Write a sequence for this structure.
């Protein structure tokens, strides 16, 4: 066990710069308000937690104005954005903006917005929320999920957006003359 007092202190910008070298997926977390209006936010920390029971999680800054709405709903859909959806990521990340303006989506069976054109989505009921430092960890129990397209995912790396192409897929494509 590491002694908290002996752990080194880092300047926030330096910590962010180094951790930016770990690529993350870009996920839009969505739900609906009681009146049916969609709400959403972008996270870069979505991950699988457990297969049995099926649990996933994401981290969100304590200052988020969207998180209380998601917690009140008690459910969310994690939409893995595709590489051609950087515009959607930027729109969903803006504070006070009409995040769903010009966005096509449909309701999941659990009334959460599934965004059109995503790579995959996972519909969840909130299982647990844990306060950790300046963030909250939200754990969701998977209710439904699917791979929605064969598109490449949008990734965040070193302060910028990009995509991922499998080296195995590149090799296969070169042999098939694609």
């Amino acid at each position: 066990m590491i002694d908290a007092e002996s752990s080194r202190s880092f300047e926030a910008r330096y910590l962010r710069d180094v951790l930016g070298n770990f690529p993350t997926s870009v996920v839009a977390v969505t739900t609906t308000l009681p009146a049916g209006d969609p709400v959403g936010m972008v996270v870069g920390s979505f991950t699988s937690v457990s297969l049995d029971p099926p649990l996933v999680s994401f981290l969100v800054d304590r200052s988020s104005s969207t998180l209380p709405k998601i917690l009140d709903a008690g459910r969310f859909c994690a939409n893995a954005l595709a590489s051609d959806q950087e515009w959607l990521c930027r729109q969903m990340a803006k504070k006070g903006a009409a995040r769903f303006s010009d966005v096509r989506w449909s309701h999941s069976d659990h009334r959460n917005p599934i965004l059109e054109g995503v790579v995959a989505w996972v519909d969840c009921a909130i299982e647990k929320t844990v306060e950790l430092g300046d963030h909250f960890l939200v754990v969701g129990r998977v209710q439904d999920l699917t791979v929605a397209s064969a598109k490449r995912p949008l990734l965040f790396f070193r302060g910028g957006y990009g995509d991922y192409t499998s080296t195995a897929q590149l090799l296969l494509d070169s042999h098939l003359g694609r």
